[in-house]
Structures are given as C-alpha cells and as structure tokens.
TrEMBL record:
Protein name: PilZ domain-containing protein
InterPro entries for the chain: PilZ_domain (IPR009875)
Listed SUPFAM superfamilies: PilZ domain-like (SSF141371)
Single GO molecular function: cyclic-di-GMP binding
C-alpha cells in the first residue's frame, strides 16, 4: 500500500544533533520535507519526543518509525522558518537547476557522463 504524502521529500545531507530528555545523539538528515525528516546514523524508539538542533535552531518532532540505524521524525508544525527550511529550499533549487540552467546550443553538448543525474529521494528503504 502506497501512502500519499502531502509534501514531496527531498534528498539532503544535513548533520544534526537530536536531543531527548535522557540522551543526545548525532545523526544526518537524508531526506526532508516541511512535515518531517528521515535521520540516519542513530535511532530512537517510535513515539519518542525529541528535538532536532541545527545551528542553534531547534525543531521539535516525534519519532514515527525506527530501524536499527535510521528513523522517521514527524514535525508537529510544518517548517516555516529557520536553517532547516533554508537547507530544504536550497536542495529543492539544486534539484531543479541542472535541467533549467543548462541548455547547450546544437553541437556544443558535453559528453553524457558530465550530466548530473536527478536524485529521487525515498523515505525509509522504499524506492519510488
């Protein structure tokens, strides 16, 4: 069963610190939307309340699912400001840039190996 998401997840690579009442863990956000994130490199039990710290800015969340080395965190409020949203917007812009920015004249096309592929972000281990 495929779940229809309200927001498209974008592939990113953002090192963060996750803090709970009892612990502080380092991880990396590998896909992100305004409503949640997938974090690799650490995990917490499902339903754990936590906060994500990036550059002194805190975003609260709840762990929705967890595996040995990764977890999905849902934000109670969508991102509307802060460094996490800025990184999301930069990743979205970079995802669109290779197609829109490069339009070579006929005959001036570089070899096919120089084209940057679009990265399709997936959530968890599913591939879309």
């Amino acid at each position: 069963m495929q779940i229809q998401r309200a927001r498209i997840r974008i592939a990113v690579d953002i090192p963060i610190v996750i803090t709970t009442v009892l612990d502080s863990l380092e991880g990396t956000i590998v896909d992100l939307s305004e409503g949640g994130a997938q974090v690799v490199g650490c995990s917490l039990p499902a339903k754990t309340q936590c906060q994500i710290d990036l550059d002194g800015h805190v975003v609260f969340g709840t762990v929705r699912w967890s595996e040995e080395d990764r977890m999905g965190i849902r934000f109670p409020y969508e991102l509307t400001e802060g460094p996490l949203l800025e990184k999301l917007e930069m990743a979205r812009a970079a995802r669109r840039a290779p197609i829109a920015a490069y339009q070579p004249a006929a005959g001036n096309r570089p070899p096919a190996t120089s084209y940057a592929p679009l990265i399709q972000g997936g959530f968890g281990r599913r591939v879309r």
